[in-house]
Automatic annotation (TrEMBL):
MF annotations from Gene Ontology: metalloendopeptidase activity
InterPro entries: Cell_wall_metabolism_enzyme, Dup_hybrid_motif, LysM, LysM_dom_sf, M23ase_b-sheet_dom
Annotated ranges, domain LysM: 128-171
Domain of life: Bacteria
Species: Leptospira bouyouniensis
Protein name per Swiss-Prot or TrEMBL: LysM peptidoglycan-binding domain-containing protein
Coiled-coil spans in chain: none
Amino acid sequence: MSYYFSFPAFFLSCSRFFCLDPDRVSVKAIQFITILCFVFSGSGLFANPFEKLHQEINETLPSGDSTVFRIFSNQSQEQEIHKLFSVGVNQTGEEEEVELASLGLPKYIDVSPVVSNTVVHESGIIVKKYTVQKKDNLSKIARSFSIDVPKLKKANSLTSDQLKIGQVLEVPVQVKNASSSRVILKKVFILPVPQSRITSRFGRRVDPFNKYNRVYHSGLDLAAKVGAPVLSSADGEVVFTGRNGGYGNSVTIQHKNGYKTVYAHCSQILVEVGETVKMGRVVALVGRTGTATGAHLHFEVIRNGKIMNPESALGMTEKHVTKLPKSEVAGM
């Protein structure tokens, strides 16, 4: 004998499988019980499918705080994404040093500022020493050195023309290289990103964000790959580091004679405020932070509070003169 259960079937009234009797459905008892068991025992199918995965991951993670982000969590997806982007990477100086070391970047990059290096000779009078030989006289000695007898006598405080064999005379001689100096011409500022490409110069230009508008560009844009080293253009002291509006991550360095240089849109900053830097110091890495259309360094030069054309500053030179020891002349 078979037992049947009958129940309203309004939820199946529109179903094509139960079109014969849309108001009621009859099911054998055994089949009905089987369906109920399947529904209640199978509720686990609707549980979080990643719960076991999380459990296994958590068991393998070290105890305590961890900077490892879980793939899934009990928090909402929006909270996870916000957490990921708000934390970022390389938040500590220690991690930054590790990354810098992994890139193989030195602290300084030697970029020679020397434009020319020459030795300049100046004409003048040098004093040669001459030992009187047998049959010598003042006239003969004066002629051999192309000077006048009165000058020879005056240089040696002689009151007569009498000379003694072995006597040492001082002979003033006019020469072309009486003194020598080394003259070195050096750049005041070096290009902060070696082997970069100029993409935008100082002055009025088309707004890169609105081609119908012309704006004044206050610096020099040097295109390079993200992570390329940014060098201090001259010796100085770091007076600002950090986020600076549309400039993004930027560095400002104070130099002598009222000059300042600005390095903007950097991906990383590698110096601190108050740090003394030399020309060629790696102060940052090229990036595209702030208002930037691509990876580049925005380089500015300011003198006594006024912005100047960076290319003019890069073209400036200064002369360094060093006196060399007096030339030695054979026979002196």
